[in-house]
Write a structure and sequence with these properties.
Order of helices and strands of chain A: EEEEEEEEEEE
Distance between the termini of chain A: 37 Å
Helix content of chain A: under 10%
Largest interface: A-B, 22 and 25 residues
Distance between the termini of chain B: 41 Å
Number of helices of chain A: 0
Strand content of chain B: over 45%
Order of helices and strands of chain B: EEEEEEEEEEE
Number of helices of chain B: 0
Radius of gyration of chain A: 13 Å
Shape of chain A: globular
Structural class of chain B: mainly beta
Radius of gyration of chain B: 14 Å
Number of strands of chain A: 11
Structural class of chain A: mainly beta
Oligomer: heterodimer
Number of strands of chain B: 11
Chain lengths: ~110, ~120
């Protein structure tokens, strides 16, 4: 069964550094999402992407964040200047329509 | 936007007993309600979902019920087993009808099944 994949599984970075989190959505899916989960808390929506553009974004998704689909398979989340409070698990998800499947996540630790 | 409330936050049951987790939502236009199971350090895994054109859906030991009038939906797990121990999240569309499908999640229920 196809699955969403993400790399890296764990990223450690210094405050102020840029990070890029990578995702490969399920191949026939049209909608892509990034969510984050701070340890012990609920999953929070960041951004959705459809037809090569952002369709919705939350208030968390400020100017420090950007997303890109650089080729036909990858979907990336970039954080330009990381802050301590960006430490969280970042999940990519994809869907044909409303049913979303999540990747295994990237644990981002900002020191 | 959508607001999803989930109860209880923790639930302990004896193996073999049933577990029920309840969620309410605020936007009457919402029409899709998934449930995810998340084991420690793992991805949220879709276990069952329901759409607003049905009131109940069942898959083996798991069932979901939906009451659109009251704007609540519930997850029922029967004959619980230790491997059911996990955090369960309900969700609803953040912007129903807007042509995008992002979800608003509840705060989660930590289910512990005691052998």
């Amino acid at each position: 069964e196809p699955e969403v994949t993400q790399t890296p599984s764990h990223q450690v970075t210094q405050m102020g550094q840029e990070v890029i989190l990578r995702c490969v959505p399920i191949s026939n899916h049209l909608y892509f999402y990034w969510y984050r989960q701070i340890l012990g808390q609920k999953v929070e929506f960041l951004v959705s992407f459809y037809n090569n553009e952002i369709s919705e974004k939350s208030e968390i998704f400020d100017d420090q964040f950007s997303v890109e689909r650089p080729d036909g398979s990858n979907f990336t989340l970039k954080i330009r200047s990381t802050k301590l409070e960006d430490s969280a698990m970042y999940f990519c998800a994809s869907s044909e329509l409303d049913t979303q499947y999540f990747g295994p996540g990237t644990r981002l630790t900002v020191l | 936007g959508e607001n999803v409330e989930q109860h209880p936050s923790t639930l302990s049951v004896q193996e073999g007993d049933s577990a029920v987790i309840k969620c309410t939502y605020s936007d009457s236009a919402s029409n899709y309600f998934p449930w995810y199971k998340q084991e420690l350090g793992k991805r949220p895994q879709l276990i069952i979902d329901i759409r607003s054109n049905v009131g109940e859906k069942k898959d083996q030991r798991i069932a979901v019920t939906l009451n659109k009038t009251a704007k609540h939906f519930s997850l029922h797990i029967t004959e619980t087993q230790p491997e059911d121990s996990a955090v369960y999240f309900c969700a609803a569309p953040s912007s129903p009808g807007a042509g995008s499908y992002q979800l608003t999640f509840g705060k989660g229920t930590k289910l512990s099944v005691i052998p």
